[in-house]
Amino acid sequence: MSFKVTYENNKMIIPEISCGCGFSHAIPDIDVYIGRGILPECAGYIRKRNMGNKLVLVADNITYEVAGRKVEEILREDGFQVTLCLLEREEELKPDETALGEVLLAMDADTDFLVGVGSGSVTDITRYVAFNTGRPFVIAGTAASMDGYTSVVAPLLFNGQKVNKPSSCPVIIICDIDVMMTAPKPMFVSGVGDVLGKYIAKADWLLGRIINDEIYCPVCADIITQAVDNCMNNIDIIKNRTPEGTRILIEALILAGITILIVGNTRPVASIEHNMGHYWEMKKLERKEETPSHGIAVGVGTVYSLKFFDYFFNLDLSRIDKEEIRKNRLTREERIKKMKEGYGEKIAEAIMRENPEDFLDWEEQERRIDRVLSRMDEIKDTLKFLPSAEEMIKSMKELGAPVSASEIGIDQELLRDTFHHAKDYRSRYTVFKTLDELGLLNEAIEKIL
Ligand SMILES: [Zn+2]
Ligand SMILES: [Zn+2]
After folding, report:
1. How far is the CA of 372 from the centre of ligand 1 (A)?
2. What is the pLDDT of residues 25-61, one digit of tens each?
3. Which of 57, 137, 345, 431 is the most exposed place for a label (fewest CB within 10 A)?
4. 39 CA from centroid of ligand 1 (Å)
5. In what order do the strands lie in the sheet with 113-118?
6. From ligand 1's centre to the CA of 99, what distance in Å?
């Protein structure tokens, strides 16, 4: 079954999904508008959802100039009672306790809803406050820089450390192409990086299906495939920030975000390349260094992930010696020690608590090895859509995106650590786990470094 979205007066219409994959699919109740010059319609879009009349409008000094002031004027003119919460910063806005506090203090007991004007940080700040005060919220996006507009998790900073907090989705997302196409080029590069990561997410998901009989949704995979292909085929116009290029990119990001809601988790859109990005962010924050933007980190993670896939596809399986693998397995104690080395005591314990099934007994590991050995042809055939690392590097260079860790301030030592620890960030099955279970991860890491 092929999935096609259509538009009615710039409103995205998502078709009913019936695929029998095993997930129960819910079509999210979000009004997504994508179109040129649609910002002036925002009052009408909001009225349709009957959320009340009194709102707090959240923007930073940049997004306020780009679109926030206009939204404020339109809403006031329409009779809404608007309180402006302008998050003024000299540097880039951070989604931290100060920003959250400012938004909270701009609210009153009778505030009906919130409107965020911005991209990643403004959305996450607005999302978290809205969720915890039980208010609906609206987002007017200003950049096609990440797939998190529809997310139900807010990545925030607390005491300078990253925390992921449960949150809610916006009721309305307004993507005015005329606004988004004026975003700076690095934000486009970031958006494309986030889309490219979906190649890895899809490949790892299919690998999980073959090796562990994981539930796999072909419709969601199809949505993602269309989105990624569309971006890859239009790198040129995306790079030049044309209206059509901007539309293709934001549509891909929104659709990727919507599959998360359809499946109920981020399996279709995030895998080891995102884990690498999270690991870099965590370590950079620890060192009080600047973190690479999400999509740019994901793009670089995608290149390295493809190198591990290339290594896996070229393996000589006759080398696999199960006795040897069994002998070299980490004990549970060694595993725990390694987790704590990578993530620190507190985070390691939290990760292990959330992923109790992650430590395999030998019987399960052997079953997985046997599955790889007996179905390698099928694996290669199923994953042949993956570009090689070289092809990916070529496309990304064309876009002007960084393709190596050193370009985003990750040194060789941190890169090695990342390769050793990224797979343990969550129990989600990835090619890193395949290689680890085959006893070959260390060799692959050294070869790729
Ligand atoms: Zn992402
Ligand atoms: Zn499905």
Report:
1. 29
2. 888 899 999 999 999 999 999 999 999 999 999 999 9
3. 345
4. 25
5. 6-8, 11-13, 31-35, 172-176, 137-141, 113-118, 54-60, 81-87
6. 22
